[in-house]
Amino acid sequence: MAYFVAQAKAGKKLFIRKIPGLDAVEEAVGRATEMGKPILYVPGLGDIDWTATIASMNILGEVAKKIALYDTPLIVPNRWSVVYTVGKEVVKEAFISQGRPDKFKEDYVRYLTEAQFGFAAAVNGIMLREKPATNFFIGRFWAESLIMAETGAQTGAFQIAGSDSVLQLPFFVTACDYTLIGEELYAASAYLSHEPLLLGALKAQDYGKLIVLIILFGFTIFAFLKLNLLTLLRVQ
User: Fold this and answer.
1) InterPro entries, from UniProt (predicted)?
2) How confident is the model at residue 222, as a pLDDT?
3) CATH number for the domain harbouring residue 106
4) What DSSP state is assigned to residue 50?
């Protein structure tokens, strides 16, 4: 990991495959700006101790930086009070980092309710009343995923979703324009920010997985050929 972080800090371009859903973020923000409509960002229904929620907060920070530059209205509804507090600080910090703290508004980040379907109903109401041009559904979702994604599709919004829930991904793929699948959600913050530490960690994880796969493949071959590795390595 230290090697890849050093390479990134030195300016070496580390290869990361294209992720269409993340490449479309700029387009999504620009579309809302041109239409003069807000952007809706739903950080999932998981509490702050869910990994997907933490990843969503990282992505929210990068999206908020672009929104600050374009001066586009933002709506971030939250189910949990802790996520609401963290989300507000993330968005505020994003506006400050872009030199536009005066453009941040307290009502950009909202607390709704902890009730699962009460939250879904409230988000649907926001989509139907305020007609956001772009919807982000990124985080941990359950049975309400299709309800919200379908409502957003009916309003004609451009939609980007992302979740690590295998059961909910088919609904997002069906109803959204782009979907981040599985680990793409966790790679998103490094992909969008290009921070050397995040890029180095991402590359180190990829190579670590490759090494593990090679080892597993090797042991599979030994098992298939019925070879005893300990016998082969034994010093006579």
Assistant:
1) DUF6754
2) 78
3) 3.40.50
4) S
